[in-house]
From TrEMBL:
A GO term for molecular function: RNA binding
Organism lineage string: Eukaryota, Metazoa, Chordata, Craniata, Vertebrata
Name by which UniProt lists this protein: SPOC domain-containing protein
Coarse class of the protein's main subcellular location: nucleus
UniProt keyword terms in alphabetical order: Nucleus, RNA-binding
One GO CC term, this protein: nucleus
Source organism of the structure: Aquila chrysaetos chrysaetos
Domain of life: Eukaryota
All residue ranges annotated as the SPOC domain in the record: 30-207
Length: 208
């Protein structure tokens, strides 16, 4: 018995040694794909009395826009929660307007991010505190709500209104739709299909 078991552990050990060689190991899902991107924001998206722990990784655009517009003015740090107060119907004219704003904001007045379920693994300490009265739920519930409404969530930035010379902007949270898929072409090529619930977040700075 013992020799068999030892043989087995020996086998599994040799396997783990080989792992680092296969750097380009196949990514299984969108969360793994997101890990290959730069983390831009980790916090809670809030809708009504639910909050959704979310990680946002940058797909394209300027990180400075995110840092500038997602600032918490009272603490000077990054905001830990963003409240969705409006919806934008996913009609072509509305989407064209968002595309126009992205084009206007290029190259450094916009950012496109991939939002996935934030996992507490290894980041327990950095998990934002949920306010009393808010219920923590999975991001997929927010995604299915927006899908059902055929709408994107909209947040005016900066939260709490602009002070003085601050730049202002908008955040759009798109559920999976034709519009959002255009930003996920490389993810699609890598994974073959995007099964996991996710959102594409577009942040645009208002052009004066």
């Amino acid at each position: 018995m013992d020799s068999e078991r030892n043989h087995r552990t020996g086998e599994s050990e040799s396997k783990t040694h080989e792992e680092p060689k296969s750097e380009t190991k196949k990514l299984k899902n969108l969360s793994e794909y997101a890990q290959t991107l730069q983390l831009a924001w980790n916090g809670l998206l809030v809708l009504k009395n639910s909050c959704f722990p979310t990680s946002m990784h940058i797909l394209e655009g300027d990180l400075g826009v995110i840092n500038g517009l997602l600032k918490d003015h009272s603490s000077g740090g990054k905001l830990t929660q963003l409240k969705i107060a409006q919806r934008l119907r996913l009609d072509q004219p509305k989407l064209d307007e968002v595309t126009r704003r992205i084009k206007q904001g290029s190259p450094n007045g916009y950012a496109v991010l991939l939002a996935t379920q934030s996992t507490p693994a290894g980041a327990e300490g950095t998990f934002p505190v949920v306010e009393p009265g808010l219920q923590r739920r999975l991001l997929r519930n927010l995604v299915s709500y927006l899908k059902q409404k055929q709408a994107a969530g909209v947040i005016s930035l900066p939260v709490g209104g602009a002070k003085g010379r601050d730049s202002t902007g908008m955040l759009y949270a798109f559920p999976p739709c034709e519009f959002s898929q255009q930003y996920l072409q490389s993810a699609l090529r890598t994974l073959g299909k995007l099964e996991e619930e996710h959102m594409v977040i577009v942040i645009v700075k208002d052009t004066a």
